[in-house]
């Protein structure tokens, strides 16, 4: 599934981290923000930053609580924590929209909302901290 990308907004998706990942890596489905625009010769991949509904044990510069800005379908919550230390590239086979309902004939319906620019800047800043590039956060 191609993931829409806007330079000042990012898509909100779910990412299945099951299979192939082991703790301390992400190991379950998570709400995530797509950080990367399509990159030539990198078909089928996107870079994501996972979100968590639980605050981290020790809050670091790569963590920040955000409000997505709109209600999300169950089980996701609009208040969540950016996991800037967990930036990863995943194949589109792991990425899905947010399931909003099942249609009359059993067909699932999905939503791929966009986060606003302020939330996206926060996510980018956390990602830079998580990658050890804190000096670049002044440019955001």
CATH class: Mainly Beta
Number of strands: 10
Mean pLDDT: 83
Structural class: mainly beta
Main sheet attributes: strand count, strand direction, barrel closure: 8 strands, antiparallel
Low-confidence sequence ranges: none
What is the CATH topology assignment? Answer: SH3 type barrels
**What pattern of helices and strands is seen along the backbone?**
EEEEEEEEEEH
| Overall CATH architecture | Roll
Count the domains: 1
Rg is 15 Å
Strand content bin: 25-35%
The general outline is globular
Q: Count of helical segments?
A: 1
Instruction: Give the termini separation.
Output: 30 Å
Describe the structure.
- The relative contact order is 0.24.
- Helix content is 10%, strand content 34%.
- The chain contains one helix and ten strands; from the N terminus they run E-E-E-E-E-E-E-E-E-E-H.
- The model has no long low-confidence stretch (mean pLDDT 83).
- Strand 8 and strand 9 (108-111) form a beta hairpin.
- The longest helix has 14 residues, at 117-130.
- The protein has one helix at 117-130; strands at 10-16, 29-34, 45-52, 63-67, 79-83, 88-91, 95-96, 98-102, 108-111, 114-115.
């Amino acid at each position: 599934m191609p993931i829409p990308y806007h330079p000042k907004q990012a898509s909100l998706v779910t990412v299945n981290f099951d299979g192939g990942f082991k703790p301390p890596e992400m190991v379950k489905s998570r709400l995530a923000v797509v950080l990367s625009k399509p990159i030539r010769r990198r078909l089928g991949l996107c870079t994501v930053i996972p979100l968590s509904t639980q605050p981290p044990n020790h809050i670091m510069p790569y963590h920040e609580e955000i409000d997505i800005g709109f209600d999300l379908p169950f089980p996701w919550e609009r208040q969540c924590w950016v996991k800037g230390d967990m930036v990863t590239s995943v194949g589109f086979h792991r990425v899905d929209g947010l399931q909003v309902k099942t249609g009359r004939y059993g067909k699932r319906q999905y939503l791929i909302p966009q986060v606003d620019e302020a939330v996206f800047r926060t996510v980018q800043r956390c990602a830079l901290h998580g990658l050890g590039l804190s000096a670049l956060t002044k440019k955001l």
